[in-house]
Amino acid sequence: MRDILDLERYPIDQPQRLEPLVRWCRAELAREGMYNLEGLVRPEAIARAAAELGPRAAETSYTHARRHNVYFRERLEGLEEDHPALTRFQTINHTLCADQLADTIVGRIYEYLPLVDFIARTIGVSRLYLMDDPLARANVMEYRPGEALNWHFDRARYTTTLLIQSAQAGGEFEYATGLRTDDDENYDGVGQFLGGESGAPRINPLTSGTLNVFAGRNTLHRVSTVQGDRSRLVAVFSYYDRPGVHFSDAERLGFYGRTRPLD
Known about the structure:
15 strands, Jelly Rolls, single chain
């Protein structure tokens, strides 16, 4: 993996050398709700990844378009349908599933166990497991000009992504902290933010080759509309603190338009 990952800068293959980096990542998570390993993937490797995935996404990806609120739920108990927190947005992306990544650089990175163990240490769990699902374990999302991943909260507490290719303009990772907690949904505060009444979002200026670990369950976030002539490509890695996790057929059909791996 040394030709792909900068293991001199980030010695994730040497656990005995990792404690300073782990402490820094934990401090960033506590302070910012995320940490970035900028340049984890070497420039030549991330350029190769973009070259192999760009044409694949253009030709064989599944287009997923939907209108949704930030909770991805039609109704919430105690809220009227016109409450500002239930404002609906449009999201469009083009997805490559894990079975389409098996022979790629991104697929190798996802399965690199020293990286999985390192992420587990940073988020304070004893172990993380690769997802069992043959479609969902790792995905690559393409956002073409005029498309966006709109405002939402994640279902998982932590999300791991790798930026493969940035957009020519737009396509920025924007987020807002402090809007809700595990104990307080703060629907009115969420609605005020979505209505532009409580300040501007913060921007995480990601560069290609950066791994981002993000506490997205309680942090509102989006990818702004892509502009210019170049798509945004990002990999999403799914790890869990228990083995055997997979999506239902209904979830696979909704996200990927199919339930089984390609032949």
